[in-house]
């Protein structure tokens, strides 16, 4: 069972509506701001007569000189003043003559009063269609309305042959008209040339191979600016969306409950339609669903739209993964990046530590060498050099420097002394004999 809720009526805003019925009466219903929401019948026009039942009505809702057209069962089209109910004109729209009784066999079923006016002398122009598909356009001038003479149609054509037309709908620009009924498919006609521009194709048979005979009860144009998208409702409780620029079969077909759909109206937003069934059910449909390639996620409790994703192509089915992790892919990626960054920083820190340890060892060794060289220089200057701690290479360099500073004779003696006194490692604290001899010879020189 569907969930139902009972709400208190807040009332309706200020409005004025005109209704027609099977007794030929026109009733005016008005709702005023005070008291709020109190809609009631304020006027009734006409006398009750079942033979003059109103089968169709159309309003030219103009700011100046509005006109209401009503089609009666006897084939007469009346033009009324929607402000006070006065009859402006009455024209026999069916049959060769006004007094011909053969019109009862082919009554009027559809009517549209054009909003635009060709000239000021014309009271109104309307399009009417009979049950057998005879469509005609007539213009009523003010002179003809006063005289009450018969008016010949300016254009006529046959919508279908021998079928039952039940409705017609004109687009916002009043250039195209749509017809539909029992036993005929929906068709689109050009009003200027009176030619058919598009016709629907019957849907395929069902799984049992049964073909459903077409039976359209109402239709409308979906958008004001685009006459190519039309919505048609059937007696088999279906709402169909046709795109005349793409294909002949319906792009969307939705079933609503079990009763025939009797009325349909388009919303000014261009994508919603409102339907009414024979049992009094009212519903609205968003005709973009399934055509705009969006995945929409709804909350079943609050019936609120949570998110919508555009997927480009026409969708066929959707499945849900029940084992999906709560963490989003972005969070997983961020965590992976953070872990990789942490490992990289740790590696860099270890490398820095190693490089620091190596540099510290090198600096310590260099400091030791510098200290050792300083101590050696200080000892040489003081004359207390201990060659036990000096390596052979350093001693050889010192000897070469001393050879250059001395004379030739001293150089020979030093060479001989160098041969006698070989630089052998001695115990710490002992001075070499060669240094003692060398010092004496230096004194002699």
Automatic annotation (TrEMBL):
Residues 327-336, 365-376, 386-397, 406-417 have a biased composition (Basic and acidic residues). InterPro entries: WD40/YVTN_repeat-like_dom_sf, WD40_repeat_dom_sf, WDR74/Nsa1. SUPFAM superfamilies: WD40 repeat-like. Residues 423-445 have a biased composition (Basic residues). GO terms for biological process: ribosomal large subunit biogenesis. Residues 327-445 are annotated as: Disordered. One of its GO terms (cellular component) is nucleolus. This is Transducin/WD40 repeat-like superfamily protein. PANTHER family: NOP SEVEN ASSOCIATED PROTEIN 1 (PTHR16038), WD REPEAT-CONTAINING PROTEIN 74 (PTHR16038:SF4).
